[in-house]
């Protein structure tokens, strides 16, 4: 949808546009259509709303978004194939980082579209029933994008006005102003949106309430966070999966546990892969790429070859030893999240190894040397993967996050997946309620919410052993529980930042990431492309600590 809008001349040039004025003027608007003529019809306005959703795909399911939101934390470090070590290991992180530049550009383009839609909605010819719903969607999306912006970069540029033409200045706006607008938009969205939407992936009342609960928690408004979380938990449209592992089956993408998703089509042509004819501003890899990023290099091991089932291993991120140790032996979420065994699938195999036999075993635990010596398969145990101090010894072989695998891909090298991204699911709402209760001093109630998830996570016959007591409920325990439940789901960096634990927990638990970490890196650097483009350079400067 984004490509259609640009090809019909509706590209607005904001201060964040990276194209030159000459290129934009020469390349677009062959039809003479303008925003004033298109967006004043219900059909035209639908294209605006649909396009406003599409920018989420630049973050959710994409390597840029995973690097900004998951890596550089206590639970992931760099695999050998890592591209953005400056984000993961804070290695000379500066405004030249292209992942940050891409997300800045796309999110501000999305903000501009939302601003334009909200200001134009009264003239769009929408029915009295439809108008508040579309406004609710746009306001949710504006709040959603601004949250990513303000938490990533701090008090940077803010506006609720549509930008037309080239703007060469930027403002510095207090974080509180961002959140005032986020809360205003989300309250309107929650009031206006229906409980269900006819089109999957559209924001609903429950999604707005769940995101509002997350925002209240972020700002320390614990009573409000609890009330909003309880409203979502009372919604019978949502239900926890009985089995944690079932969440990640490709046949179960429409699970009732998912409250808000970024929807990817099974027809990959309808997603966001760049195409010089139809989608010149699409993403270079398109669709959901999570299945590529967390996999160890298995396809060069004896008895193994790359196949669809085991995935295409980009070897970008590996778990910290700390993350693997968070899962107790009674917790089925480990097996539901990680793969440790690869079975022989190659025509050429070691002597005595049959097709389907174990070819590679990567364990988070120590394997006795005497036992390893009796195996035909290759073993990588705790002391082979990690050094005694927790730093990575082998960045190629490790237990691999399997949540996002997609065996339905058409070919073994296909980088695109039709897997939807679960942005907010019901389990997180239980954890929001638990954290709010803890901060309000209600430790029993907090433990009760956490135990709902731990009961679901328990292996057969181990539910009682998985229960916690009120005395065990601390902020660190909740962050540990969020890691066990939500690892890889593009929320970790935000969790650590909002709780004031980012620096502390990286230094305590992720020694590879801690080496270059500086106190100012609770914010990311503003893209240099932005700083170069503006004229008020003395007023709008780089975030503190960055060059």
TrEMBL record:
Keywords: Cell outer membrane, Membrane, Signal. Pfam families: SusD-like_3, SusD_RagB. The keyword Phosphoprotein does not apply. One of its GO terms (cellular component) is cell outer membrane. Residues 310-546 form the RagB/SusD domain. Its main location: membrane. Residues 96-217 form the SusD-like N-terminal domain. Transmembrane segments: none annotated. The keyword Signal applies. It is found in: Cell outer membrane. Belongs to the SusD family. This is RagB/SusD family nutrient uptake outer membrane protein. It comes from Spirosoma pollinicola.
């Amino acid at each position: 949808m984004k490509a259609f809008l640009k090809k019909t001349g509706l590209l607005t040039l904001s201060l964040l546009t990276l194209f030159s004025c000459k290129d934009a003027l020469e390349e677009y608007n062959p039809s003479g259509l303008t925003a004033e003529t298109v967006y004043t019809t219900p059909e035209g306005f639908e294209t605006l709303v649909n396009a406003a959703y599409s920018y989420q795909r630049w973050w959710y399911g994409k390597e840029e978004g995973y690097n900004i939101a998951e890596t550089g934390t206590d639970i992931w470090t760099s695999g050998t194939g890592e591209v953005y070590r400056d984000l993961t290991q804070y290695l000379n992180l500066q405004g030249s980082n292209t992942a940050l530049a891409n997300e800045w550009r796309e999110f501000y383009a999305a903000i501009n579209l939302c601003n334009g839609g909200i200001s134009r909605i009264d003239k769009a010819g929408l029915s009295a029933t439809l108008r508040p719903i579309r406004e609710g969607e746009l306001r949710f999306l504006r709040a959603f994008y601004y949250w990513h912006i303000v938490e990533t970069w701090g008090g940077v540029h803010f506006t609720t006005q549509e930008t037309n033409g080239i703007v060469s200045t930027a403002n510095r706006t207090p974080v509180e102003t961002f959140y005032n607008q986020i809360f205003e938009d989300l309250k309107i969205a929650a009031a206006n949106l229906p409980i269900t939407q006819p089109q999957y992936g559209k924001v609903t009342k429950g999604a707005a309430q769940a995101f509002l609960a997350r925002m209240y928690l972020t700002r320390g408004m614990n009573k409000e966070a609890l009330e909003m979380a309880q409203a979502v938990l009372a919604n019978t449209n949502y239900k926890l999966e009985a089995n944690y592992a079932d969440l990640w089956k490709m046949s179960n993408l429409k699970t009732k546990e998912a409250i808000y998703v970024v929807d990817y089509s099974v027809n990959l042509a309808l997603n966001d892969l760049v195409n010089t004819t139809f989608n010149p501003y699409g993403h270079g890899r398109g669709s959901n790429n999570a299945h590529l990023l967390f996999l160890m290099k298995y396809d060069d091991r004896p008895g193994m070859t790359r196949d669809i089932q085991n995935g295409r291993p980009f070897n970008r991120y590996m778990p910290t030893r700390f993350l693997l140790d968070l899962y107790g032996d009674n917790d089925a979420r480990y097996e539901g999240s990680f793969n440790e065994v690869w079975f022989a699938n190659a025509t050429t195999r070691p002597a005595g190894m049959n097709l389907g036999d174990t070819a590679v075993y990567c364990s988070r635990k120590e394997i006795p040397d005497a036992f390893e010596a009796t195996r035909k398969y290759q073993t990588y145990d705790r002391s082979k993967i990690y050094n005694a101090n927790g730093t990575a010894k082998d960045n190629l072989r490790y237990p691999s996050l399997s949540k996002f695998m997609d065996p339905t891909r058409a070919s073994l090298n296909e980088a695109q997946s039709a897997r939807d991204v679960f942005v907010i699911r019901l389990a997180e709402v239980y954890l929001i309620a638990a954290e709010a209760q803890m901060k309000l001093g209600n430790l029993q109630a907090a433990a009760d919410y956490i135990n709902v998830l731990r009961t679901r996570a328990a292996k057969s016959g181990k539910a009682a052993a998985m229960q916690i007591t009120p005395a065990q409920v601390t902020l660190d325990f909740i962050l540990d529980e969020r890691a066990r439940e939500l690892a890889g789901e593009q929320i970790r960096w935000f969790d650590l930042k909002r709780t004031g634990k980012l620096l502390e927990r990286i230094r305590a638990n992720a020694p590879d990431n801690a080496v270059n970490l500086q106190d100012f890196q609770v914010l990311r650097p503003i893209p240099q492309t932005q700083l170069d483009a503006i004229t008020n350079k003395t007023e709008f400067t780089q975030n503190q600590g960055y060059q």
